[in-house]
Amino acid sequence: MIFLQLFLSFLKIGLFGFGGGLAILSLIQHEVESHGWMTSEQFVDIVAVSQVTPGPIGINCATYVGFTATNSVWGSVIATSAIVLPSLVIMLLLCKLYFVLNARFQRSIYFQQTMRMLRFSVLGLIAAAALCLMTPVSFIDWRSWVIFVVVSVLTIAPQYIQMTDSNGKNAIYLLRKSVQIISHPIILIVLAGLVGYFIYA
Amino acid sequence: MLYLQLFWTYLKIGSFTLGGGYVMLPMIEREVVDRRRWIDSEEYLNMIALAQAAPGLIAVNSAIFIGWRVGGWRGVIATVLGAVLPSFVIILAIAILFQDYHQYPAVEAVFKGVRPAVVALIAAPLCRMARSAKITWTTALVPIAGALLIWLVGLSPVWIIITTVVATLLYTYLNERKQR
């Protein structure tokens, strides 16, 4: 029974998951929390693990949720297959359509408008994922907020730093380069983990 | 041999790209266009458009496209398995080994530091994404309304997607008819 629920949930996630990994997170979160397969704490943890391990975040989440919900490898197999299945059907359909119609549908106004609006609502989905995770479980005290702000700034900063011109000033160049390196998600997660170990252990 | 190449290429893409779909795109381009020459750059751009238009994971969608284009059905099986297997094996191993990770105070302390960082890593890219989507004050209402409905009302994100698609198609249809 739980296997069927798992299959249907991840089928739904695969079918409505537009806009890549981050947008899919809010769908996964809604499904796993409404079924009680995971607490929101466990969910943040698996997102963290997904960020530092290779592969698409959606696959990582499906595999992990499948195992923890059923305590069996088959749960992982079913959840992972279910999230891929809609892609398989729709992509193959689109591939055929694409070669037949010679990309004509891509120029259709209906297609373009839908894609444009989906991009906007996907932003809302990502914001919702972040808002739903801003719980007292993830933010235990003021130090959590410091970590949140520092990581946010380091993630956003490189886009703006690149705009300033480098005139061979080495100190500034080095600073910029180091911000760029630190701002990689994996490095930020590892650093946050180290900070957590030193202040909470 | 071809299927093995397809499998191997996507196994590499699946095991060396950290951080999900958008990080994978440059690696996919390098492997599929520059090295293997399975498709040219123009087709690559079309592939990305299709992979983003279809629901699901972008990396998996691109795997399906290349598999189908190069090797038909068996090609699809080879590329999808290649793209999925590394994540699957690594995460399964972690899930099995660290089932009771909450018991270890050290691990729990690490995660206490990591959790707010993860929320920041989800929220912060919104700035860049909003800019590249060329969002305006009016169109910003769409994501704001969506986020609030999911967050405060507990609406399923599925409904946001369905509403967006149906409303846009309807609006475009009415607009087109008015112009005629």
Keywords:
heterodimer, A: 201 residues, mainly alpha, 2 domains, 10 helices, globular, B: 180 residues, 3 domains
Describe the 3D structure.
The complex is a heterodimer of chains A (201) and B (180). By secondary structure, chain A is an all-alpha fold. Helix content of chain A is 81%, strand content 0%. Chain A contains ten helices and no strands. In chain A, helix 2 (21-34) runs parallel beside helix 4 (57-70) and helix 4 runs antiparallel to helix 5. The mean pLDDT of chain A is 85. Chain B is mainly alpha-helical and 180 residues long. The mean pLDDT of chain B is 86. Classes of the chains: A mainly alpha (201), B mainly alpha (180). Chains A and B meet through helix 1, helix 2, helix 3, helix 4 and helix 5 of A and helix 1, helix 2, helix 3, helix 4 and helix 5 of B.
Structural class of chain A: mainly alpha
- Could you estimate the helical fraction of the residues of chain B in percent? over 70%
What number of domains of chain B?
A: 3
Uncertain spans of chain B:
none
Outline the low-pLDDT stretches of chain A.
Answer: none
Straight-line distance between termini of chain A: 40 Å
Q: Which band does the percent of strand residues of chain B land in?
A: under 5%
Spatial gap, N to C terminus of chain B? 55 Å
Cα radius of gyration of chain A in angstroms: 20 Å
Judged by helices, strands and strand pairing, the structural class of chain B is mainly alpha
User: What is the tally of helical segments of chain B?
Assistant: 8
Q: Counting H and I runs of at least 4 residues, what is the number of helices of chain A? A: 10
How much of the sequence lies in strands of chain A comes to under 5%
Average pLDDT reading of chain A: 85
What sort of overall outline of chain A do the alpha carbons produce when their principal axes are compared? globular
| Secondary-structure element pattern of chain A, one letter each | HHHHHHHHHH
Largest sheet of chain A: none
- The secondary-structure element order of chain B is HHHHHHHH
